[in-house]
Write a structure and sequence with these properties.
Blueprint lengths: L12 H4 L6 E7 L4 E4 L7 E3 L2 E5 L3 E6 L2 E2 L8 E4 L2 E4 L4 H4 L1 E8 L4 E3 L3 E8 L10 E3 L5 E3 L6 E2 L2 E7 L12 E3 L6 E3 L8 E9 L5 E3 L3 E5 L6
Parallel strand pairs: 2-11, 12-20
Antiparallel strand pairs: 1-4, 3-8, 5-6, 5-9, 7-8, 9-10, 9-11, 11-14, 13-17, 15-18, 16-17, 18-19, 18-20
GO molecular function: cell-cell adhesion mediator activity
Pfam family, one: Ig_3
Main location: membrane
């Protein structure tokens, strides 16, 4: 006679499913870094997150490594996988966000995306000392960028607006520091220079106090 032996073999859910029909989440779109103008706190911010999968994925978000409990949060909500934040708060909302998409087959974590507020303070009001240089020498005029957050661009006004310094083989404006470099100073370079800083996100613009450039005539270096 034959005896039938039964074996209990553990299998995962994915082994039971047709791999051609069911699969874990795959990213369509991951969140990107956000810079929000500081004067736009009454508007909404949206961090995008979208994945495909069968069954359709569900989503969770974390802020600085801590899961956001959307059931108890009246300012944050999901729209699809996107996280929408209203009544923005500089202290509660700044940080690193991460999205998780999951279904019964698997789960994936997105890249981390930062949310920051962009701003540009005014220059400190004070008289800048004149800079003296001998003809033919080089000189650096310091911008002294005020406190800021966000992408900045720099320019210099020569004597009065709207006469901006034109960059050439002698004059260069650093877009890293805002400083103005002038090589082989000529008498025509003498005048007042004002640093102009612009925030590309807030569209704000601030001007420094003028710096006078004068030629030395005492013969000293």
């Amino acid at each position: 006679s034959w005896r039938i032996l039964e074996f209990a073999v553990p299998v995962s859910l994915s082994d039971c499913l047709d791999s051609g029909s069911y699969h874990g989440p795959r990213w369509r779109m991951e969140p990107g870094d956000l810079f929000i103008p500081i004067d736009s706190i009454d508007e909404e911010a949206t961090l995008t997150c979208d994945a495909k999968g069968i069954p359709p994925p569900q989503y969770r978000w974390s802020l600085n490594g801590t899961l956001i409990n959307l059931g108890l949060d009246h300012r944050r909500r999901l729209s699809g996988g996107n996280l929408i934040i209203r009544s923005l708060d500089h202290y509660q909302d700044v940080g690193m966000y991460q999205c998780m998409a999951y279904n019964t087959v698997g789960a994936i974590l997105s890249r981390r995306a930062s949310l920051q507020f962009a701003y540009l303070d005014h220059f400190k009001v004070h008289t800048r000392s004149a800079v003296s240089v001998r003809e033919g020498q080089g000189v650096v005029l310091l911008c002294g960028t005020p406190t800021s957050s966000g992408d900045l661009t720099y320019a210099w006004v020569f004597n009065e607006y709207p006469y901006f310094v034109q960059q050439d083989n002698r004059r260069f404006v650093s877009q890293e520091t805002g400083n103005l470099y002038i090589a082989k100073v000529e008498p025509s370079d003498v005048g007042n220079y004002t640093c102009v800083v612009m925030n590309s996100i807030t569209k704000g613009k601030v001007h420094s106090s003028p710096t006078s450039l004068i030629l030395r005539t005492d013969g000293k270096i």
